[in-house]
Amino acid sequence: MKFFVDTAEIDQIKELNDLGMVDGVTTNPSLIKKSGRDIIEVTKEICSIVDGPVSAEVTSTEADTMIAEGRKLVTIAKNIAVKVPLTWDGLRACKTLSSEGHMVNVTLCFSANQALLAAKAGATFISPFIGRLDDINLDGMQLIEDIREIYDNYDFETQILAASIRTVNHALESARIGADVMTAPPAVIKSMINHPLTDKGLAAFLEDIKFTKQKIL
Ligand code: E4P
Q1: Comparing C-alpha atoms, which of 80, 148, 157 is closest to residue 119?
Q2: CB burial readout 177-209, b (16+ within 10 A) else e
Q3: What angle do CA 106, 110, 113 make, to 5 degrees?
Q4: Which among 34, 44, 83, 190 is annotated as catalytic?
Q5: Which residues pair with 183 in a beta bridge?
Q6: CATH fold of 2-192
Q7: For residue 185, how far is its CA from the centre of ligand 1 (angstroms)?
Q8: Are the CB atoms for 123 and 98 separated by under 8 Å?
């Protein structure tokens, strides 16, 4: 499973990238706002750090303008994936940009039928939003499962990018179902390491070696 980090914060991307935990990055207008940076500048900086796909989202709602924005975004770096919303205009932009050989991430997916349309339009990635479905008492993980089944039925090459991941269980379940990629905030990726028995076991080992007064260095 590929790990994308869902942030536009450079320090956090660098920290996880140095650990080999970053196969790509996803941004969106809200994350750009949070970073306080210029969208083009910060996206360029992210692309200089990370080799894998870096999603940068268009800001218009009309297909022709999305296509123009996408064509500008891909000039930032060769690893840009243009992010478009799951609307008919977004799918039209997806079809054009993917036909030109650009990576396209279709975002704001909340149903398996939407994911089917995105695959037909040539999306490189489909981003089903797990957390936002859970927020309204719907089953976000079921959506990942449904899309996996449909894409496998027809050998669609579109990669399932599990998004809006809020908990370590979202990450675990996405991996179990076989999502190709997950994108998660740095804090969620970092908390995947936590286990109280690891902490307890390490504390006991350190106590015991201290008792023996032995040192390796
Ligand atoms: C993915 O590409 C989105 O940027 C992100 O996962 C949305 O997450 P949120 O629902 O926590 O805002």
Answers
A1: 157
A2: bebbbbbbbbebbbeeeeeeeeeeeeeeeeeee
A3: 80
A4: 83
A5: 4
A6: TIM Barrel (3.20.20)
A7: 8
A8: yes
pTM across the whole model: 0.96
Per-residue pLDDT of the chain (217 residues; tens, 9 = 90+): 999 999 999 999 999 999 999 999 999 999 999 999 999 999 999 999 999 999 999 999 999 999 999 999 999 999 999 999 999 999 999 999 999 999 999 999 999 999 999 999 999 999 999 999 999 999 999 999 999 999 999 999 999 999 999 999 999 999 999 999 999 999 999 999 999 999 999 999 999 999 999 999 9
Handedness of CA 10, 13, 16, 19 (dihedral sign): negative
- Among 10, 20, 94, which residue's Cα sits nearest to residue 44? 10
Atom in ligand 1 nearest the alpha carbon of residue 4: 2
Query: What's the gap in Å between 31 CA and the centre of ligand 1?
Result: 9
Phi-psi region of 71 (alpha: psi -120 to 50; beta: other; left: phi over 0): alpha
Active site residue 83: yes
Q: 168-177 and 140-154 helices cross at what angle (nearest 10)?
A: 20
* Pocket probe mutation, ligand 1, options 108, 110, 135, 164, max atoms within 8 Å of Cβ: 164
